[in-house]
Amino acid sequence: MPGMRITVTGAAGQIGYALLFRIASGAMLGDEPVRLRLLEVPAAVGAAEGTAMELVDCAFPLLESVDVFDDAGTAFDGAQIALLVGARPRGPGMERSDLLEANGAIFAPQGAAINARAADDVRVLVVGNPANTNALIAASHAPDVPADRFSAMTRLDHNRAVAQLAARTGARVGDVSRVTIWGNHSTTQFPDLAHARISGEPVAVDSSWVEDDFIPTVARRGAAIIEARGASSAASAANAAIDHVRDWVQGTSPHDWTSAGVISDGAYGVPEGIVSSFPVTSDGTGWRIVDGLEIDAFARSRIDASVAELLEERDAVRSLGLI
Ligand code: NDP
Fold this sequence. Notes:
The chain has helices at about 15-25, 45-55, 70-75, 95-115, 130-140, 155-170, 205-220, 220-230, 235-250, 295-320, and strands spanning about 5-10, 35-40, 65-70, 80-85, 125, 150, 175, 180, 190, 195-200, 200, 260-265, 275-280, 285-290. The chain folds into 2 domains: about 5-150, 3-Layer(aba) Sandwich (Rossmann fold), CATH 3.40.50; about 155-315, Lactate dehydrogenase/glycoside hydrolase, family 4, C-terminal (L-2-Hydroxyisocaproate Dehydrogenase, Chain A, domain 2, Alpha-Beta Complex). The chain is of the alpha/beta class. It has a 6-stranded parallel sheet with strand order 3-2-1-4-5-6, with helices on both faces. The protein has a 3-stranded antiparallel sheet with strand order 7-10-11, covered by helices on one side. A 3-stranded antiparallel sheet has the order 12-13-14. The two termini are about 35 Å apart. The chain is globular, with a radius of gyration of 19 Å. β8 (about 180) and β9 (about 190) form a beta hairpin. The chain is built from 10 helices and 14 strands. Catalyzes the reversible oxidation of malate to oxaloacetate.
């Protein structure tokens, strides 16, 4: 069997540099051989070729091939996994509508190329921000690909929430389960500990810590890292992308769930058709939203606030003709 065809966009960027070597080493798909297809804008193709040379130089036993493209159609040809990392960053003085429009110009054609050229079983993870709405744009340009094959990354927020809870309680990270990120991958996200467990037992943490410390720390962690490091969180974002795809393909553990932005089917009062983060499990074939969780008034208001932002983004891209 030839290796899995994996297309990575924005391959010459910071996240790409932290991501590709781990994919090639087997961190994402285990012992499965991989064929990497790197997409970049023409100006960054040279840098992507440099990264490809380094990948070759690692002599990874699982890496069958690495190719660089500046054309989306060719890059997504036969793709079984697509990691959409490249996006247009917000420039000085750029309004949100400008950002959405600039990203629409990237994610609409990429969705169309996936529709036309990717493998029938393609799975697409959108990392580039605004990730939820970029995933919505890409999915809506891929009418022949089931919408549940597109997801947006909130796994880094999820991992940050797990780590913060472990630090607060003194538990080991591996003993923390059932943490949830709801809503948008933005500062309105709702990291939720109401159903969290440590070593299988419900967690008692005081609500003032949750509201005044935990939630803002998780939601603003990206900004704190930029301030401390002078650059955005690339390695932890790449790690989260690896975790996301690995759990999607290999399945989540039986007593836990993870968080991912998926197309809402109306669950938990989140309007159908927007890409929102939910608690999800996978049996290896696809994401399934965890059902039956109780949502109290506090959680309701936080989820509703983040969903309101997603609806605004959806309405903005709709009025721009992007979906
Ligand atoms: P990064 O590799 O650091 O980031 C790429 C994207 O991931 C950004 O949109 C970034 O959002 C997002 N992201 C999501 N989660 C996180 C997180 N937790 N921490 C940091 N970033 C996160 O960007 P670079 O500028 O280094 O590289 C981008 C590359 O993409 C460039 O090489 C560029 O040429 C390429 N590109 C490729 C395209 C294509 O293949 N067609 C199209 C557009 C760009 P945020 O901006 O909010 O940090």
